Records
---
Amino acid sequence: MSLADHHKILFEPVAIGPKILRNRFYNVPHGTAYGVLRPSTWASYRAVRAEGGWAAVSAEFSSVGPSSDEFPLHSSDIWDDEDGRRHKLMVDSVHRHGALAGIELHHGGAHAMRRVSREPAFSASGLAPELPPPAGPLGTPKVMTVDDIERIEQAFADAAVRARDVGYDIVEVLAGYGYLFAQFLSTFHNRRTDEYGGSLENRARFWLETLGRVRDAVGDDCAIATRLSIETQGPWGHSIDDSVALVRMADPLVDLWDLNVGSVLDWGSDISPSRVIPEGRNLELFARVRQATKKPVVGVSRWTSPDLMAQAVRSGVIDIVGSARQSIADPFFPQKVREGRIEDIRECMGINHCISSLDRGNMTCAQNATAGEEYRRGWHPERFEPLSRPDVSVLVVGAGPAGMEAAIGLAKRGADMVHLVDSVDQLGGHLGPVVRLPGLREWGRFIDHRMIQIDKLPNLQFIPSTRLSADDVRDYGASHVVVATGARWLGTGLTPGTHEPLQGVVEGASWVFTPDELLVRGKRPAEKSHVTVYDAEGGYMGTSIAQLLADEGYKVSVVTPHSQVAAEGDLTLEGPAVRASLHSSGVAMYREVSLTSARPEGVIGVGEFDQPFSLKSDALVLVTMRSPIDDLYQELTIDREALHEAGIEAVYCIGDALSPRPLAEAMFDGHRLAVPGHDIGSGEPG
């Protein structure tokens, strides 16, 4: 296969100042949770993106000094020469694959964490002569003096020189996301009366002076870029009209514009989940800014379709496709487009596991198990080392996320035969019904990608509508068995917080429902019922069920013991939009309430301070916790002698059947079984 004509525009080189991008794919700055604290992991992660064909690969935001210490967040400091040496490891790894290396210089201002440096935060100004500045994360920031401004400008220039000296090709000044320069641009933060406040030109002065210093410092050695958030939500940002004016002001100082939307206070506007925001929705805003510059423009908009990317470039609205999440999901996206292998692309699903996992210390992806594991485990997204014993025959029971991933990996490693068996007639396991929930259609990309790969592998066969007992498995003739039979939602109301079922709940009662009964078996409460959804899990399921039932005409209430409805959704950046949608649909929401009992007439519980809670309703949906369906695994492994007599060398349990977890972790479990380090050809039973 070859490059399609309508995609050729994406592979035209683009000049940015003194540098040339080999194509129009730009891996924009994004966090990894690694940075200078884990430099080898960081370098290997970035290198794979360069190998996959991205023309430029950027580091995450890099703070220029201790007053912008962001620990424990995922910043990459560039304060001194030691930091520089760690950056050089990443830069060299990117250059080895022919890509340009970019760095985003950053200062958080009032939002900086400063937990290690213990420096005071900086604020653009106080709200008025008699009022302090807006509060930062750990206290009231210090209003910046002109001397402070001078020192920070010099810190950016020094960091730029340090970046140039370790080999960075592109030096970007971050003026977005509500950080320091954006705070000066904002009339919410900036109430100064000196030359750095008042008019838009004055509020932009600090940023413009810094850009000028950075350009003077690195000369013609680097391309100079700036990231500008061109629109934000709420009072703390600036308008699209202001952005057009700002681009005109700064245009002589930059070689490249990197445009996004949103701020640290409405991050979901930029890193938008597919559940609430469609792909490419920023194009109209980019078109407004396009009129103000002839310099190359990088635009980010959760691009996943090469067709839409090419259309955006051909329209002239953007020159370069900026991407973070698609590069995580498939580092080899550009190469696959160039080779005409569109069907092999792992499209980002917009689930934002990559975002929620960052604050927990390790980036994960629901499409790509190898993300972040390139150095530690030696994993590669496209290369599969042959099995040490390719003569193995593998039976995978369960075609959900873990089972599909394991079966594909083992087949790609050359197993003689892999049979993927499921009791239903479709691939996907629990994910199949999930993608029919409101807003979750794009999650089906997980299944679509793996269905294509299964069809391509001659040594992998999917066998649908087949339920296997332990005797069936022993008689199957496989040398290795993988049990990936998933999990089920409990119908008792048992929660991790109480370790007790709800009093009065009888599993299977006509007024009690689980997600499995609603989505798989199609059961519903009586028409016009008032339904209580008890969401003790806090993930996507409870609020999705509530939205589904509300859309179907039920009166719905959500009760959760968490401090917020859709608690996990706040980490994946969809929480506010999900709550707004539920509110618009008439769904009542009760937070920090733990139910203690339920009956057909309603539910009873206690609030945060042990105050009584009761709610009348006709039906109860329990979204509390899942239990592994591991009966087959337990029955097989309890009789080792029978396994030996059947010629079964090993039995493995993976995914939700081992431990119910989010999609990214279940898929990861299947991949881990299939790849080197856990060589299935040499395993022991159990």
Note: The longest strand covers residues 56-63.
---
Amino acid sequence: MVSSRRPTRRQFVSAAAAAAGAALLPKITLASPAQNAISATSAKGPSPITREKISWEVQPFPLNQVRLRKGPFQDALEVDQRYLHLLPSDRLLHTFRVNAGLPSSAQPLGGWEKPDCELRGHFAGGHYLSACALMYASAGDRDLKDKADAIVAQLADCQKANRNGYLSAFPEEFFDRLREGRKVWAPFYTYHKIMAGLLDMYAYCGNDQALAVAESMAEWVWHWQESISDEHMQRILQNEFGGMNESLCNLYALTGKHQYLDLAARFEKAMFFEPLGQHRDELKGIHANTHIPQVISAARRYELTGQERYREIAAFFLHTVTKDRIYCTGGTSNSEFWRTRPGDLSTELGRSTEECCCGYNMLKLARHIYGWTGDPRILDYYERTLFNSRLGTQNADDGGMSYFLPLGSGYWKYFNSQFDSFWCCTGTGAEEFAKTADTIYFHDAGEIFVNLFIASEVTWPEKGVRLEQQTNFPEEEGTALVFHAERPVDMALNIRIPWWATNGGTIKVNGPALPAFSSPGSYLTLTRNWKEGDRVEVRLPMSLRTEALLGDDTQQAAMYGPLVLAGRLGAEGLKKEMFYADFSPGPPRTEPPPVPVIKTSPTDPVGWLKPVSGEPLTFQTVGQEKTVSLIPLYRLFGERYAVYWKTASTEV
């Protein structure tokens, strides 16, 4: 039986927002992956979920049941894997050991891990552990697990030397400065990263010592804050504190110790949450990635307490950012901030658009809300961001990551150096390319949901089924799904029909085409008795279109299917060193060369583009003063590019 499934579960947009016409439109990745993998599953087997007041409508498959296959995401995982192996443990641990008074003769790392950087330890003791744990789950890399286990043991030694549960690569004096209102970078931001890394090591690798160290860290925080008034704590929270709330919620979910949930509540920034809870976008002027993790924390608190206020905060935030504050890529922020009123990015193109951490954390948030609702429209945003804002921000040569993805015409992609950068986005990048398989497939009690078209396979042992996805998407306009079943099984297969599939499509089961399809933004549901070798083929034709920059219809981006196309502007004036940065991220502050204005026709808005014969996903301009080649943004490296084009109509 074939049917079309519109979103019938509880919509992700709040009722008040929906009444105002606030659905997420195509106009425009747990904290840990399995109902916050931390509470739904772990390397030790199922853990109690009774602490979850809100169950997800649909559940992700655990990472160790999903494997990527040949394609751009597997390539990215393998590049990331090599980088994680490259980094020496003694160098990662150096500043932790020195801070604890333990000997170390290792060469210090540079950049944000340098011995005098106030964020030292955020990558070495935090992101790195999370990335290794995720890589073990998603690729079965036992060597990385063993390496990370050894680092946890060394961190435990450092904590023991500190004698009070404190663990960091910088002294406790940083927190004295924070309490007293003296200048300090972001000590709780770094403390959170370390706790999150330890919790991931427990959740994905079954490392009991990691959980014990994280608990001791939380106990130190409890004693640090217990004499601080609520008013004083709100002043402290003006300093970036990452996802402290989320990690403490996860610690409660793992241990059942309610004091951690109480402690998490101390990390709620009232002046940020209150407008969101009332469906007001007052984001102008605030630092984007300081606040996105706080909303992920609200989502996690909703799941653990059932308090609707936190759901409203998370749902409205996702709605307002994805409707009014994203670029065609799905990314958000400029120079790390939201600098304008909602719906106006007309002045927000340049060298420092869309900080990569923002995209990473927005996907994490979207994944929570999709889990609550099963709404496929959230995955339209997820796919857009994954393919355009995340894929293509990794240096395939050495595993380096981008900090910003410049969208000002004439700029270029650049990356961190291997041992002398360690930006926040180096850390989130190391995590995300280890876990891109976590949202491809979801399930409920008897149905499987194919959400993303990525070459991969998923195993569902409870059903005796392995589903293999054979695709070269996006170079191939569709996918094939092959069942491997121990015995025939009755089950519904739900295939997401994306928002960009406006030209319809076809679906075949074991050869013949079915006389039905489904609308964009919904699931196509096939219910039948599935047998070994059953094959479903889905064809999803792509088409060209343009999308205007929010607030300026004269600046247009070209898209093909879900892909943002970038114009190739050459490498003139670029030197090798301009593709890398160390402590201060960003391409050199040079004026980009002029980019031609595109002549357009209102009766044929994509008439200025045509495909290049014999070259997949390649287009070129026509009827312009200069011919420019365009390819997907994620495939463009080593040269200047343009995404948004200034346009001028040729008709009056």
Note: Confidence is low (pLDDT under 50) at residues 8-36.
